[in-house]
Amino acid sequence: MTKKRVTKIDPKEKLSPYLSHQSSKKKKNFRTNTKISASLSKLHNERKSALLKRLGLIIGVSVIVLLGLGYYISPLANVQSIQISGENDLPVKEVVRATDIKASDKVVDYLLNKNGVSRKLSVKYSEIKNIKVQVKDFNHLIIEIDEYPTKGYIKTSKGYRKILTQGKLGSQFIPWSKVYPDKPVFVGYNHEVSLKKILHLFNSLPPDFQDQIKLLSGNTRRKSQVIFLMKNGNVVIGNISTLKSKIKYYNKIKTKVGKNTLIDLEVGAFSRPLTPNEKRAYGLI
C-alpha cells in the first residue's frame, strides 16, 4: 500500500494576502475616517465663524439703530440754530423765515428733504440756484446758498435789481453802493419785453465788447435804436437789428478817436466828439 504524500502548508503564507489586504483596508479606512473627521471639523468651524459674523452684524446694526433712534427722539436732534452762508445780498432773517424751519423740527428731516427747502427758497428768491444743507455740532443747520451769476443791473424807481444769467430779475432792490462797477447797468428798460430784446442783443455781442460797456440806455429816439455808454467815456449808437454785424468796426474807430466820442454805427460808421449837453445827459460831466 502506497503512502499518500502529505504537503505541508504554512497557514501564514496562505493567509498573508488576506491579512495584508485587511491591514491595507484598515489603514485606508483610517485615513478616510481621519479626512472625514478633519473635513467635518473644518465645516463646523466655518459654520461657527459665519454664525458669529452674522450675529456680530445683527448686534452692530441693532446698536446703530438704537443709537439713531435714541438721538432722533432726544432734544439733541431738534434744530438749535440756522446759519446762512454763501456770497449773496439776500436778507438773512427773511431767508431763515422762508425756510419755515422751527426749533421743534428734527435736523435729520431737513437733511433728507433738502430739495424741499431749496424749492421753498427758490420760489421766493429768484437769485437762488440751489442750496446745500449741512449739520454742525449735531443740531446746528448750515444752509449754503448758491446764486445765479449776475449779468448786470436794471435801474428802477425803487433802486437797482440784478439781471441774472437765466434772464430773470433779482427779488431784491439794492442801493447803488452794492452795484458792482464791472457789471453794466440797464437804464430805461422797465418793460419786460424791451428788456428781453436788449438782453438778447447784449448776449450776442462779443465778450470783449460786453466787458467794455458801462451802461445801456433805453431812452432812445426810436425803438430800434440802442445806446451804449462805454467805460472809457465813449458812446456807441446802433440799431438792434444790425449792431451785431457792425460791432467789428468799433475797435478800429476807437483807436483813432479820443475820449468822450460818439461812435455812430446805426446807419453807417462814423464818429464825432460829444457835445456838452450830451456829456451832461450821459453823466460824463
Explain what you see:
This protein has 285 residues and is of the alpha/beta class. The protein has 3 domains: 28-73; 77-147, Ubiquitin-like (UB roll) (Roll); 150-281, Rossmann fold. 42% of the residues lie in helices and 22% in strands. It is built from 9 helices and 11 strands. It has helices spanning 11-73, 92-99, 107-112, 114-124, 192-204, 207-210, 243-246, 250-254, 276-281, and strands at 81-85, 128-136, 140-147, 150-156, 159-164, 185-187, 213-217, 225-230, 235-239, 261-264, 270-273. An 8-stranded mixed β-sheet has the order 5-4-6-7-8-9-10-11.
What is the topology?
Elements: H1 11-73, E1 81-85, H2 92-99, H3 107-112, H4 114-124, E2 128-136, E3 140-147, E4 150-156, E5 159-164, E6 185-187, H5 192-204, H6 207-210, E7 213-217, E8 225-230, E9 235-239, H7 243-246, H8 250-254, E10 261-264, E11 270-273, H9 276-281
Parallel strand pairs: 1-3, 4-6, 6-7, 9-10
Antiparallel strand pairs: 2-3, 4-5, 7-8, 8-9, 10-11
Structure summary:
This protein is α/β, with parallel strands linked by helices and about 280 residues long. It is about 40% helix and about 20% strand. Cell division protein that may be involved in stabilizing or promoting the assembly of the division complex.
